[in-house]
Amino acid sequence: VGLHSLSMSKFTLILTSLNLQVLDKCKIFSSVSLLVFITFSVRSQDIRNTVGNIPMEWYKDYPHIGYDLDGKKLFKPIRNKDELDEFLDKMENPDYWRTVQDKMTGADIRLSDEQVDLVHRLQQGKFGDVNFNEYEPAIDFFSNEVMIHPVTNRPQDKRSFIPSLIEKEKVGKLVHAIKMGWIKPRRPKETTPQYYDLWAKEDPNSILGRHKMHVPAPKMKLPGHEESYNPPPEYLMSEEERLAWEQQDPEDRKLSFLPQKFACLRAVPAYSRFIHERFERCLDLYLCPRQRKMRVNVNPEDLIPKLPKPKDLQPFPTTQSLVYRGHSSLVRSISVSPSGQWLVSGSDDCTVRFWEVSTARCLKTVEVGGAVKGVAWNPNPSICLVAVSYDDTVVLLNPGLGDRLVCTASDQLISSYEEPEEVKDQLVQWAVAEGEGHEQGHRLILKHPKAVRQVTWHGKGDYLACVMPDNGSSLQVVIHQVSKRRTQNPFRKNKGLVQCVSFHPIRPYFFVATQRYVRVYNLIKQELTKKLMANCKWISSMAIHPGGDNVICGSYDCRLAWFDLDLSTKPYKVLRHHKKALRSVAYHRHYPLFASGSDDGSVIVCHGMVYNDLLQNPLIVPVKVLKGHTITHDLGVLDVTFHPTQPWVFSSGSDGTVRLFT
């Protein structure tokens, strides 16, 4: 085995590169002949590196990797393999699996079949030499037979028959330690069982201590006058009281026995229910659970949410300023012009009235052919049109108020329409008003197949949506385009009875409120985007925040639900401030205000601040209850709407008035 250092390191390299972690030394060195064979086979094709057993990282920054026997530098291969070369070599070289790198020279060495076989044998824990027999018969040198000649003829040592001085010294030290008491003998184990107190180390001041939780059994009630053998006459029952006592259930009786009177103590008989009562007392003592409940002392004021004071949230409407009188029946719908100068109201007395907001003066009255269900002023300031719905008709009126240029431009917009060459059948009949109707302001008349309950404009002012509630029909919502006089039914079928609809103020979304749900549709993609669950029995009205990310819904079961569309499909807050059904809800276009009108005759104004920071939830604070309407036929406030620029709110009621709160 006296080989050069390179050969041994080369052999170690072969084994370690094939993940041989534990090598049995005796098995390796038992196969010396095979080792010599591998060594010489590697030696014959290798340039010897004479640096010895040092870390090869020391040569990392040098072009050479060591020195040969003549002292000349051994240069590294011209190009080191990167990972891509390694991968290509692995894919294309069939001998890649048996190729190892020599760290001493940097060269790749292909292992021969004999070397691979040697590695496999060592991995399996076998001997390196193929010809070595590990199961040779053992020679029994030391048998039970006494032989003439011993195996070893060595004479016995002197120490085998002379007492040891070292042991004598150790024993002396132990004897001295026992005498001095430093080493104590082991005590015999006690066979008697030991008992421990589980609660010996318990903290006596702990709240949940066993002794603190113990509740003594309640004492029995002491006997009173009625238990006496000679009670006063007022404690004795009459015949009627006795009969009533016997008819009662045992649990309902005030006394568990009948008071009786005896002449003397000797005449008192044994109590018949004595054993029964003692038995029940024993049951009460060991069966009735007694536990001390830990009460949490909470200050009730801490449970009330900390809301800002209403003074800090001004401006908001606080006082009734004007009353618009003139309608003879309940006013179902109101709407304000985009400039905030005019107000339109529709009533069950079959009239539409136009008012000047600042003076409460009725400027114009237009009679229509039925009770007005809804009015809506076009939100586009460059168009002066008002949509009015009654029965199965929607009329577009030009009130002729305000800027004459705008009124003239609105008439030109309608009169400039040219009919297409191909006239398609439409769901709704469009007609241009003529004669007396035109003089009153009628411009377009739209005849629907069913009664129209609600009208609402798109923000741009060209599209108009109408609601015709009918549970069994697919035609409940239609959208009209005024400039092209076109009508379309956006839904093939409606899920549920549609209550109200609304356009999104910014994005192409369309909100449809049925009895229980609010569905949000994308008009461009023509698909359902969200389905909001209102958690109420019947939705009555809906309003969308000007920012577009929040919706409020009023319901007939006295609830107002605020939805945060980014947060959840369930209400962020549910307000139950009204005592009766909510008829209408509205947002202000610029101020953080929203209002709700109810059949209890009140309008509640709330501060609803929506923050630009998405991590901050909206702040909802009720700030004012506005009263003024009188309840008529169990109806109160039927519609509310805000002024477009001022923090004012308009409300219409069943008492035939419209009121302005500023």
From TrEMBL:
Gene Ontology terms: biological process: maturation of 5.8S rRNA from tricistronic rRNA transcript (SSU-rRNA, 5.8S rRNA, LSU-rRNA); maturation of LSU-rRNA from tricistronic rRNA transcript (SSU-rRNA, 5.8S rRNA, LSU-rRNA)
Family assignment from sequence similarity: Belongs to the WD repeat BOP1/ERB1 family.
Pfam families for the chain: BOP1NT, WD40
A GO CC annotation given for this chain: preribosome, large subunit precursor
PANTHER family, per the entry: RIBOSOME BIOGENESIS PROTEIN BOP1, RIBOSOME BIOGENESIS PROTEIN BOP1 BLOCK OF PROLIFERATION 1 PROTEIN
Subcellular location: Nucleus, Nucleolus; Nucleus, Nucleoplasm
Protein name in UniProt: Ribosome biogenesis protein BOP1
InterPro entries per record: BOP1/Erb1, BOP1_N_dom, WD40/YVTN_repeat-like_dom_sf, WD40_repeat_CS, WD40_repeat_dom_sf, WD40_rpt
